[in-house]
Amino acid sequence: MSALTPQRMTPSEALVETLAANGVTEVFGIVGSAYMDALDIFPAAGIRFIPVAHEQGAAHMADGYARASGRHGVCIAQNGPGITNFVTAIAAAYWAHSPVVFITPETGSMTMGLGGFQETDQLPIFSKITKYQGHVNNPRRMAEIAGRCFDRAMLEMGPAQLNIPRDYFYGDIHAAISPPMRIGRGAGDPAALDEAAALLAEARFPVIVAGGGVIMSEATAEAVALAERLQAPVCNSYLHNDSFPASHPLWCGPLGYQGSKAAMKLIAQADVVVALGTRLGPFGTLPQYGMEYWPAGAKIVQVDADPRVLGLVRPVRVGICGDARAAAAALLQRLAGRELAGHAKLADRKARIAAEKAAWEQELTAWTHERDAFSLEVAKDSKLMHPRQMLRELERAMPARVMVSTDIGNICSVSNSYLRFEEPRSMFAAMSFGNCGYAFPVACGAKIASPDRPAIAYVGDGAWGISLNELLTCARERIGVTVVVFNNGQWGAEKKNHVDFYARRFQGVNLTNPSWAAVARAFGCEGVTVDRLDEVGPALRAAAAAQADGTCTVLEMMVTQELGDPFRRDALSKPVRHLEKYRDYV
Ligand SMILES: Cc1ncc(C[n+]2csc(CCOP(=O)(O)OP(=O)(O)O)c2C)c(N)n1
Ligand SMILES: [Mg+2]
Asked: Helices then strands (H, E): number in the chain?
């Protein structure tokens, strides 16, 4: 049938046909009566329904699926509680710029407002964490509004909600299924590109910051070509370590929290910075390691597809609203055959880049454990592994083409220094929403999108408690992922604040854990306890190999309680108490 010829169908058929027209082959969720009429025909449309343990897991999986594939991630749930369970994961997807379409059946149109079963107003809840909200206000508009949600998720690079009163799945309608609308952005304003090229031609020490936009627009080749033309060092923006190939001589590593000192020392010298596909978020530009590295005097050329982030965090000399790939290509074109002032002292620059990188590697290798008083105390006489050494061993054992998701926590943050990638769509960190419990379900979604690539989740033991229920999904659906759980017996990142600001008055930060390996086995997955450094690499390799037959393995890393630099030094201050009864709490 021609997609544009209206046909007689039911709204459920219109919805499912729209999913198929958008290339949807997997949908994550928990079964519910609200949308059962549509679910019933998923198999006939070539759609696999992946039942999960918790709807938050479904939406995280849709996020991971979208981030790994660049295609839509889709999830669905029962009206009311099933939908409110989506909230945290949709907020996370919003900040990860993931094109997630979340389908939210709502209470029936004829009872809405009467306070019936599983009723809540489902649009306001998501209004600040979606790019687009489509509400099917008449069943005859199902295909139109569903199609728009898919289009907008791509166009606006973020989650779109499709809200459907549950009685609107039924009935007789005439509908046409529109083909997907994909709109290119182009390179941006030619005058701005001219100005940027002129700045680059005159730059003495240009530096590129490669952001998430490089990944989303598949601009790796163009970013490499631009870097090589300029012979400019390239920093990854914070938590986008996969935005530039780590084996490239111009790669310097990530900026920001627990990032690369080489990247920070090099960008500190820049007179022109090309921020390619990055909003220059605050955590990627704040001082680290006691180092104020952001080059305050440098001229910034910022390229981003979202006009709202241009000049938002850092003032820019030239803002270019465009696609990172097209803009990089346009800049290259403008630089062709041009004399570049920065090439005058090229040998010196190359030597500086190599020296900074070598110094940082050496420092990392020697940085076997944390050296603050608390860390030295808790690790003294301990037989457990030092987190940094364990992370270095994991780094060495990483399989080719690996995808790694990382959670929020102290050890996950420290891992930032040890995660290097050769290709885009390889690192899925919990981005600015920063929720513990992100990494594991996201790795599951990524694995389903890219089954041929190894998928590894880094999770702290506290965050693991939030997310481990999806082991059920892995066992039931044979999702072969590897989870590395850092068992330090504490909500470490928050404990660090108690140490630094609250005179070690520990509250709610110490964890009593079961054997996480035994728990994994009880769920029907594999579980391995690793307490020696020489076991780390072999355990990771074995677990990654076992992914091929759908085996999910939990590697429980037994590590000391030492803690790396805190995340929010900027946001905390020593306590002040005025009332007598709280006098000692300083
Ligand atoms: C959902 C959620 N709850 C609470 C927090 C606050 N928080 C940030 S880091 C952290 C501790 C993480 O502990 P763990 O997962 O054990 O990792 P560790 O710091 O010990 O390496 C907490 C509770 C959060 N970010 N997200
Ligand atoms: Mg912990």
From this structure: 22, 20
Closest CA to 9 of 25, 21, 26: 21
- How far is the centre of ligand 1, averaged over its atoms, from the C-alpha of 44 (Å)? 42
For the question of whether the overall pTM of this predicted structure is more than 0.90, the answer is yes
Cβ proximity of 419 and 259 under 8 Å: no
- Distance (Å) of CA 531 to CA 133, 387, 400, 524, 537: 48, 11, 25, 22, 12
**Hey, whose CA ends up nearest to atom 5 of ligand 1?**
436
Question: In sequence order, which residues have a C-beta less than 8 Å from that of residue 538 and are 6 or more positions away?
Answer: 397
Q: Which residue has the tokens 């010298």?
A: 269
Residue 535 amino acid letter: E
Nearest CA to ligand 1 atom 13: 491
Q: Is the CB of 555 under 6 A from ligand 1?
A: no
Pocket test for ligand 1, best of 491, 510, 558 (most atoms within 8 A of CB): 491
In a 3-state reduction of DSSP, which class is residue 213?
Answer: helix
CA 486 / ligand 2 centre spacing (Å): 6
pLDDT, one tens digit per residue, over 14-63 is 999 999 999 999 999 999 999 999 999 999 999 999 999 999 999 999 99
Q: How far is CA 64 from the centre of its chain?
A: 8
Q: Is the separation of the CB atoms in 486 and 559 below 8 Å?
A: yes
Residue 519's φ and ψ, nearest 5 degrees, are: -60, -45
Q: Which two tokens stand for residue 47?
A: 């759609």
Distance 488 CA to ligand 2 centre (A): 5
Identify residue 25 by its one-letter amino acid code: T
What's the number of CA atoms in the CB half-sphere (13 Å) around residue 430? 26
13 lines ligand 1 (CB under 6 A): no
